[in-house]
Amino acid sequence: MLEMTYMGFTLPNPLIVGASPMVRDLDMVKRLEDGGAAMIVFHSLFEEQLLAEEIATARAMDLPADSSPEALTYFPAFSDFQIGPHEYLEQLRRVKEVVDIPVIGSLNGVTEGGWLRYARLMQDAGADGLELNIYDMPAATDRPAAEVEATTLQLVRKVRDELTIPLAVKLSPFYTALPNFASQLADAGADAIVLFNRFYQPDIDVEALEVRRLQLSDSSELLLRLHWIAMLHGRVNADLAVTGGVHTAIDVLKSVMAGASGVQLVSALLRHGPTLLLVIQQQLVRWLEEHEYQTLVQARGSMSLLHCPDPHAYQRANYMQMLESWRGAEPHEMQFAP
Amino acid sequence: MATRNARNMTTIDGNEATASVAYRLTETIVIYPITPSSNMGELADEWASRGRHNIWGIAPDVVEMQSEAGAIGSVHGALQAGSLSTTFTASQGLLLMIPNLYKIAGELTPFVIHVAARTLATHALSIFGDHSDVMACRQTGVAMLASASVQEAHDMATISHAATFHARLPIMHFFDGFRTSHEVSKIEELTDDDLRQMIDEEKIAEHRRRALTPDAPVLRGTAQNPDTFFQAREAANGFYDACPQIVQTAMDRFAGLTGRQYKLFDYSGAPDAERVIIIMGSGAQTCDDTAAALAAKGEKVGVVTVRLYRPFAAEAFISTLPTTVKKISVLDRTKEPGAVGEPLYQDVLAAIHESAAAGTLPFAVPAIVGGRYGLSSKEFTPAMVKAVFDNLSADKSRNHFTVGITDDVTHLSLPVDESFDIEPKDVVRAVFFGLGADGTVGANKNSIKIIGEDTPNYAQGYFVYDSKKSGAMTISHLRFGPKPIRQPYLIKQAEFVACHHWPFLDQLDVLAYTKPGGVLLLNAPFEAGEVWDQLPRQVQQTIIERKLRVFVIDAYTVAGATGMGRRINTIMQTCFFAISGVLPREEAIEQIKKAISKTYGKKGADVVRRNCEAVDQTLANMHQIDVPAQATAARERASIFSDLAPDFVKRVTGVMASGNGDLLPVSAFPIDGTWPTATSQWEKRGIAMEIPIWEPELCIQCNKCALVCPHAAIRAKVFNGEAPAGAPDAFTTAAYKAPDFKGLKYRIQVAPEDCTGCNLCVNICPAKDKSNARRKAINMAPLTEHRQVERENYRYFLDIPDVDRSKIIRVDVKGSQLMLPLFEYSGACAGCGETPYIKLMTQLFGDRALIANATGCSSIYGGNLPTTPYCVNAEGRGPAWCNSLFEDNAEFGLGMRLAVDHMTAQARQLLVRLAPQVGDELTSALLDGGDHEAASNNGDGHPDQKLAEQRQRVLALRGKLKGIDSLEARRLTLLADYLVKKSVWLFGGDGWAYDIGYGGLDHVMSMRRNINILVMDTEVYSNTGGQASKATPLGASAKFATSGKTTQKKDLGLMAMSYGHVYVASIAMGASDAQTVKAFLEAESYPGPSLIIAYSHCIAHGYDLAMGMDQQRRAVACGIWPLYRYDPRRAEQGLPPLQLDARPPKVPVSEYLGNETRFRMVEKIDPDRFKRLAIESQRQALQRVALYQQLAQLAVPTDPKLEAEPAKAAVAADNN
After folding, report:
1. Whose CA is closest to A18, among A46, A37, A35?
2. CA distance A271 to chain B (A)
3. pTM score
4. Nearest beta carbon to residue A67 from set B38, B472, B1023
5. Burial status of residue B515 (CB atoms within 10 A of its CB: 0-12, 13-18, 19 or more)
6. Exposed, middle or buried: residue B401 (CB in 10 Å: 0-12, 13-18, 19+)?
7. What value of ipTM does the predicted structure carry?
8. Which of B168, B357, B682, B692 has the fewest C-beta atoms under 10 angstroms from its C-beta?
């Protein structure tokens, strides 16, 4: 009833375990599969982080060496001490061994060489697909938007050429002409577009005057995703997936109705554990039955820009109206029977 | 005879050459780290952890013990149980093995011990090489075989292992520490087959058959009585008689295999020599070559190299001497004060005279003199050898001479003609001056390997380091040429001299090493066109006079552009190959890149890429500069040593600091190893790139920056606004905010030339600019921009009198930092985690402290000459410091306490007797004022107030005593200062406290004497290079625990608490500085033994130490490092003596582990294993915290009947 196709895979349901540290624990991975996860996306391999670690380790070991007559080195000499993606790849291999569902690698690179090298390594390690987690920080004041997009498109083409496995591209919300950009990504070879990564959202600690790391998401973050999934559905030649803000079965339904073939869950699973997957599936089935849907696919894109009863709702013209309606009445809450 | 095996040429150092054989020919290897032998054990451990096989196809067991005494004990056991065993050691470590060497020899046990011979500590410790350690074993009954080079170390190791099974005598194979152990040289490597052919399996079987086994039990180690011991001792004589021939047979067999023929004594030189030198060790090569050069000129000189020293084969020795010999000079690399002569001299004398007496001497009895050379790796050059031969030419040859120093006191030294030189013409010499952290030595080792392995050339590398751990200078001496290099002495003049760090051109005479017409390569932080004008005048002049070709490169810029930071090694290495032309450029570059790949391979593709990019960028950035005909600079070489220093310090210490210590004559030195303190202040090194600059308007005056500074290079002061005159313009101040000195001025001041730029102060600073959170109350800024201004500021700052410490209301973090540090500008690593604790101790109690310091990092940065960090306050008081040994520091410190206690008791007794003359009021005030403890921490007046008052009373007493003419008054005058309380401190690291010194530490803690123990716990043997100790935490990788330590850290604190009367504190300054200060105050005030275990971050943990304090906070937050104080005084009040000072763990242990390379390595090698260890570590941390939580609830029950018996009675009872 909940089957869905995504990135060329037929999934028993749209519930995907998004990029998270959960994959580090094989036991957890198994429990996720048992709970009904349709696909697992690995946490991103951050090229930048690997580079930083390499440099830091080399410095930590090199700097004190050969400078005192009493100690030529301060660490055991290791021939099999490896820095680089091998831990990640090893874990990917192990996860592949324990589950039957598709396992997708995720990659965040900074250099072209890095993207291609690591993408190939992930495919070789057995990844069923690859998600490119684009984090092209447009910090430069002299780099126009077109160039930012062109760089990414070029990258997707190259990775596509390099790989045979399906490719998804995960984006941030900060593209000026997302529908156009998404179409171009699809043309460049992206099998799926994933909206949105949660970069660019650091928090500020006002007491310590420090920038803090990202916190877990909540359902309020879903709205931005719904909007853009709905905008893209049926209009770009790629599957769509939501990541960020999916916490409940209703969130899943909304996503699918907007046009998503897959929904990635992270924060909710971290909070509630793998059993949440079962709960969501049961609730979805119940909701579909109660509302007399035959399959979930029926609902896919039903509320997208193309198919929703009031396309203006997704457009700026409707802005005032929405504000007024919000002021005038309590928003309608979809409730499940207890 | 066996066929010649195919062998590799390899380029390795003497330690590796030795370990390579020892490893392959043994089964059980038991070790303990000590310089310069540590690497042998480390290599064995590394090979074993990789599963490398011995010649019998199995990896030996490698085990680290708690001391050398422990290592040899285990070896003894392994041997008795039938194993083939070895160990490696040196110096004090060898001394600790002596009792067992007697046993092993007495039991006629085949065994080889490899010794990198090192100086024994006498008036001072020295890590360098001579024969004083091995000579202290010549009476034990072990056979002794000496090597003179890296190749010989490889060969003699083999011969030792082969011969010991035939001889049934243990063999001590030794070679010169550093000169041979650390010299990198191209040698022919013996194959496993070679080794197999040297070993007689039947003899090993005999050893096995003698093994202790319950299947055929025998008894050894009996006790014997006067009736039998003597005869039984003589029963072994035959083995000593047979040993020399057995060794010679092994040497002959070896010659058959390899073509290298050794003799028990080898002769070289003129066949008809009349003057002969007898010598042993690396100096023999220098003698050989010098004799050959002199003989070629017709001089009748020769050299006997002693190889088998014990048993001394007199007959073989005499037959080695040419029958033409008329005069003999015996050279000993040791000193035996008070003896007729040094050991080898006496042996030679006895051998020849015995032979003469027996009528078997084939020549007339020659004149024999003895002399000393090369103590503590003192250079031994051909010029000195010539001086020794010249001495023999004299009508009356000087006996018991020294050579290599100028003895202007007892006039024993021989004059040396320094211009005498026999360096071969076909050898190329290169000298490189590097900064410790820039990788120069590592790159040079690679260069030697490249030359040694990719060209037909032979190559040699030797490396000289200074005694500082931060900003250290390294000098690399490289030789290469078509024949084996036989020059075990430093290069004096080189075809190629490179200075990799610009400031060295000022600090020492780099150009003295240049040869006329040679090349000078400079890493200059300027455009090529500007370099000439930046050079000091003397340097310009030498360049012109010696017609040097000068090449320059701004290597830091190239390194920076390619992401290499300050690592300029591969860049400078590329320059060397490009200029020297030893290899075609392209090939050289390829080889350099190959070496980079080999070094970093798995550690990171990007590091390899960056290095290779740096190599590629090098040649475009290297320029040869035009040398003008005239020196143009107005600037002279600037000294880093202050002209303001006291005369002795300038005359002696200053000369040492400028690298000219070799020139100092005997008369310059203290006769008993006593040196003035407070000398680090005169050496202004200026090694930081950036220094902290203070922003008074942002500062919240917490003084944390001063607290954490490892080098006392950032200080806080409160002072009267009117007092100082002539303040520099830039000397800004703030109004002091705290109540005790409200209204006074306040300043945080950096010592710009003493700062190492570690960043700890900036990281700890809690004050941020409200409009720009990146800006703190102190920020790092380039030294070059601030050096001049801050130097003036600092000079002025130091002249301002310190605040009256007795007026400081609260001795907390803030208050303590207004006190003068009496430990400053040590040579410790930048960001050192130990020194902030030491500095704090000196601020609180330094003016009345005696410090016993265990050998280790803290004794090196605390007491390694030339300049030392312990200093004095305005009254001239400061810590008195001494290092005894590594193993005995607790006992040593206790001894200090006993002395102080007894002298105090005497002073009090004398005072009572003299009360009628001194006056009752002063007497009783003095008797009551000696103990200020009651006042210390109860807010009942300030401890320093009481001390100041007592010091005033002592002054008054001295005044009175002057007027009393009696023996007792004179005795009290001497002892009066002991009426002021002294503070006795025992400093050391975890290697001392947890391992080698634990027995003694435990014992002194079991007593009730008032000692204060500071264990600076880096969880590893830091000084010798990161070997595991019992303080190494579970899951950490360290040498001897390569794949991650599997047992948890020993809980030293809990062990100490079990006594009940020991004050124990576990502290981590970065986690709670307030608790740290409190623990020091409580420990010092506690009138019994106090133990402070201080978390000390260390370079051996593998991360940027700028984050050291954050990592300390994490260690505490995750429960790995609990903070607590156990105060027995609380038990007397019915309170639980243990107080926990940290909240329950709130972050996972993994968050702490993930930041340090020592843990990450394990994860990278074996993630599953790491995960298991991390879980175990988490479990144990929680368990430990839970245990402490329960203990902290536990009030000691009090029995009302016993209440009347105060603890003080127990103290009194224990004090005898």
Report:
1. A37
2. 17
3. 0.93
4. B472
5. middle
6. buried
7. 0.92
8. B357
